[in-house]
Write a structure and sequence with these properties.
The protein is mainly alpha-helical. Among the domains are: about 5-40; about 60-100, no CATH class. It is built from 5 helices and no strands. The longest helix has 17 residues, at about 5-25. The radius of gyration is 19 Å and the shape is elongated. The relative contact order is 0.10.
C-alpha cells in the first residue's frame, strides 16, 4: 500500500512531531520541526549564491539587475525583489508582493 505524501500530510506529521517534542520538553526537536514546516510552506528559504563573483558588477540599473535575477532565480524572485526595491518607507505594505506570494493564505498553525 502506497501512502501519498502531500503538503497537508507532511504538515500533519510536523505538527505531531512538534507536539511530541513539546511533551518531552525537547526544544531542539521543536525548533527543527518548526523550521522544516516553515520551509515546506515557503516561509523559510535557504539562501545560496548564484553566478560567479562580479556577475552584477557591470549592471548599471535596477532593470538590468532584475533581468539577471529573473534569468538566474526566476520571475517570482525578480518580482519580489522589484517590490522590495519599490517599497518607499519600511513598514508600508506593498501590493505587488501579494500578487506573487507562493502559497496565498498559507499560515503556520
Amino acid at each position: 500500500m502506497k501512502t501519498r505524501v502531500t503538503v497537508e500530510t507532511l504538515t500533519d506529521e510536523f505538527n505531531e512531531a512538534i507536539a511530541i517534542a513539546r511533551e518531552t520538553r525537547n526544544a531542539g526537536a521543536v525548533t527543527q520541526a518548526a523550521l522544516a514546516k516553515g520551509k515546506l510552506h515557503g516561509l523559510i528559504v535557504d539562501r545560496k549564491e548564484s553566478g560567479a563573483p562580479g556577475d552584477f558588477a557591470g549592471l548599471t540599473s535596477a532593470e538590468e539587475v532584475l533581468a539577471l535575477v529573473s534569468t538566474e532565480l526566476g520571475p517570482e524572485t525578480a518580482a519580489l525583489l522589484a517590490a522590495a526595491l519599490a517599497r518607499g518607507t519600511p513598514g508600508e505594505p506593498v501590493d505587488a508582493v501579494d500578487e506573487v506570494t507562493r502559497d496565498e493564505g498559507t499560515t503556520l498553525n
